[in-house]
Amino acid sequence: MQHANKGSVELDGKGLRIGIVQARFNEEITDALAKACRDELAALGVADADIDHVNVPGALEVPVALQGLAERNRYHALVALGCIIRGETYHFELVANESGACVSRVALDYRIPIANAILTTENLEQAVARQTEKGRDAARVAVEMARLLASFQ
Known about the structure:
A 4-stranded parallel beta sheet has the order 2-1-3-4, sandwiched between helices. The protein is globular, with a radius of gyration of 15 Å. It is α/β, with parallel strands linked by helices. It is built from 4 helices and 4 strands, in the order βαβαβαβα. β1, α1 and β2 form a beta-alpha-beta unit. 49% of the residues lie in helices and 19% in strands.
């Protein structure tokens, strides 16, 4: 929900290593998501040298790249960035459902927080309206969940 009251918490990203996987499909949107995410990570203290950013063709390829990063066992959290805009066929549902389920599966299988900012919108206007806020949200979720999981050890 856009502009929802998400609560507030002080976040510190210093020392965290973050991996970002960005889909190129709808690249103008995903580039804006990535910029907002990286800007927010920097504002939270995550060093640019501690961010690895890879690109994949589309949302269905995001989970396998996340899995590859998770297998490296060097990240505190991962971020999934993509944009799926409804079209005239069932393809939207397939891509949205499968990418979301697989992102969650990677997070659970590897016990690593993944901030899922793969937008699913009805049209381009909705995607544009969400790109900055959701990119920032992804950064904040990654940092908060990395710290939370670290506290369990």
